[in-house]
Design goal:
Layout lengths: L3 H16 L11 E4 L5 E2 L5 E2 L5 E4 L6 E4 L4 E4 L4 E3 L7 E6 L4 E4 L2 E3 L3 E6 L5 E3 L2 E3 L3 E6 L5 E3 L2 E3 L3 E6 L5 E3 L2 E3 L3 E6 L14 E2 L2 H4 L16 E4 L2 E3 L7 H27 L1
Parallel strand pairs: 1-5, 4-6, 5-8, 6-9, 7-10, 8-11, 9-12, 10-13, 11-14, 12-15, 13-16, 14-17, 15-18, 16-19, 17-20, 19-21
Antiparallel strand pairs: 1-2, 3-4, 22-23
Amino acid sequence: MKNILLLAFMSVLLPTAVIGGLIRPVVAQGTIYIRNDGNIDPPTANMASDDNVTYAFTGNIYAEIVVERDNILVDGAGYVLLGTGSPESRGIFLSGKSNVTIKNMEVKGFAYGIWFDMSSNNSIFGNNITNNIGGILISYSSNNSIYGNNITNQYYGIALTDSSNNSIYHNNFVDNPQQVYSYNSTNIWDDGTGKGNYWSDYEDRYPHAEEMDESGIWNTPYVIDINNQDNYPLVPEFLTWISMLLVLLVLTVIVAIYKLRLFCY
C-alpha cells in the first residue's frame, strides 16, 4: 500500500513524458545486481570490483542496477547508464540500504533515474541525471545527501515522499517542469554554510530578486512548499565564463605581441 501514491503520481506523468519525448527506447540488457555477498550478477556486466567495496563501470550499461549490499561505492567512471523507457524502469534502486554512494555517471532513459526506498545515510553526487521521467525518487528515507548533480530535462527533478532530513545542495535543477515534488517531507536545501542550489526557473519566479553583495546568492529564497525552501539559491555563474574569456583574450594579445617582436628582430 505504501507505494500507491507513487504509482498514481507516475501514472499521471507517464503520458506527458512519453509524448514529450523524454525517453528514447534502447535494447534492454536485463537487470544487474550487486548482491549482498559482494558478487556482481551477471558477472559479464560492464562493472568490476577488486575489493567488494568500490564497484566501477567499465563501459556504458544498458540495464537497471539493483543494489543489495551496504557500505559500497558505485562509480560510473564517466560512463552512461541508459534505460529502455519502460514505465516501471529504475536506473539504480536501493531498498533498505545504507552507506551507499552513487557518483560520476550519466543516468537517462528511465521512469526513475535513481530511487532510494527505506534507505538512509546514502549519497548521490557528481552525476548527470537527465531525460528520465523523474530524476531522483526518495521514499520513506532520511539522512541522505544529494549534491553536485546536474538534474535536467525531466518531468520532475526530485520527488520526496515521507522522507525528511535529507540534505540537497549544490545541484543544478534545469528545465524540469516540476523541479521538486514533495509529499509529507521536510528537507534541507543548502550546505549549512550559505549555499543552496541553482534553479533554472528562479528568475521567472522572482523577477525582482537581486544578488546579495556579489555573493553568488539571490536575496529571495526559492520556495518549494510550506515546509521546504532553498534559503540560499545560487546565481548563475556567468562571471566565471566572462573571466575565462577575458583571460583567453589577454593571452591571445600577449602571444600576438610576442610574435610581432620576434618578427621585428
